[in-house]
C-alpha cells in the first residue's frame, strides 16, 4: 500500500523533503508504528513533541490504510 | 453620510457587516501580545478596520534587524520601545482608536489581570513559554486567543479557547524543551505579514460573528510551495481541566542550571516550575526528607534549593540536626538564581 507522508517545520529539513511516498507491504501497521518508522528512517528528534495527523485529523488511532496522507507536525514558536 | 460611515463604507457595504457590524468593531477590545512580525500587521488592519480599543504588549525596543518584516516601524523608530513607536504610527492611521501600551511585557503575575478587560487576545510572541502562558492565562480568564507561529517560510495559525473549543495544549500537549527563534533560523519578511493578517481576519470574524472561526483547526501555510493544510483536532478535557485547577505557572524552556558540575537537592513539590533539564539533581519534597534522606550523598557539597530559599533553609536545618548532614549549602533566593 502507498502512504503519503508530509513533513513540516524543522522536520522537513531533517528529512530533506516536504513530502515522500512510502510503499509498505505490511498490512496492519498502526499510526504509532508508522511514526516510529519515520523517526528512525530520518533520525528525527522527537521527544514525543511531534504530533501526527492522518488525513488531516489529529490523534487518530488504529491501522494505516492504502492512500492515507500522514503529516508529521512539530510545534514551532517564531513570531 | 457622516465621516465615519464614509471611512468604513467599503466594509459597511458588505451585507454581513453593515453599520451594526461597524458598531461591534467600535466596541471591541483586543489585546496584542508581542509587537513584532505578527503583532504589527494584525494591529494595523484592526486599527484600520475601526476596532475601538487595542492594547499593545511588548518589553522590547525596535532594532534595525526588525525592519525587513515589521513594516509598521521605520528607521526613526530604532531604539524606541516597540509599543510606543507602534502607538504613534497606529494613531496616525486612526485617531479614534484608543491604544493602551504595556512596556513591562507579559509576565506570570500580570497575565490574567491584563487579559481581563479585553474581549480576545492575539499571540504575536516568538517563544514557547509565552505561548503556553497565553494559553493558560486565557483558560483562567476565559478569553479566546488567536495563535500564530512562523518558521522560515512556513506558518501555523489557529484559534484557541473559543466557545469551549480546544486549547493550545490540546494541539501540542508536550511542551518542547527548546526554542528556535527567527534570529537563529532566519525568516522571509512577508511570512509574518501573511500570518498576522490571517490573525486579524480571525479577530474580525469573531467580533462580527461571521463565517467559520478557525477553532479546532490548524491551518498550515508553506510560502515556497504555496501548499496549505487544514488539520482538525479535538479538545482534550484532561489538559484543559488540569490548567484550570492549578495556579498559573511558567513552562521551563531552555532551562538549565549555570553550573552543571555541582550537585543539587530540590526540595520543592514535583509540580513546581521551572524544572531544569540537568543531571546531578536529586528531587525530594521537604515533607519526604525524613523517609528519603539516605538518597542524599554525604560525600560532596550539595546545593539545596526551593522556589525562594525558605524551604531549602528549613530542609538544611532539619537534615543537619536530625540526620547529621554537614555538606549542605542553601541557595539563597531560590531556583532562579542558579539558572542560565
Explained architecture:
The complex is a heterodimer of chains A (79) and B (340). By secondary structure, chain A is an alpha+beta fold. Chain A has helices at residues 9-15, 31-41, and strands at 2-7, 19-23, 51-54, 57-58, 69-73. The mean pLDDT of chain A is 91. By secondary structure, chain B is α/β, with parallel strands linked by helices. In chain B, strands 3-2-1-4-5-6-7-8 form an 8-stranded mixed sheet, with helices on both faces. In chain B, strands 10-9-11-12 form a 4-stranded parallel sheet, with helices on one face. In chain B, α4 runs parallel beside α5 (82-93) and α4 packs across α10. The model of chain B has no long low-confidence stretch (mean pLDDT 94). The A-B interface holds A 6, 8-10, 18, 47-49, 51, 53, 56-59, 71, 73, 75-79 and B 34, 36-39, 123-128, 130-131, 148-151, 154, 156, 171-172, 174-177, 179-182, 185, 187, 192, 218, 220, 222, 225, 227, 229-234.
Give me some keywords for this one.
heterodimer; A: 79 residues; alpha+beta; five-stranded mixed β-sheet; 2 helices; 5 strands; B: 340 residues; alpha/beta; eight-stranded mixed β-sheet; four-stranded parallel β-sheet; 13 helices; 12 strands; elongated
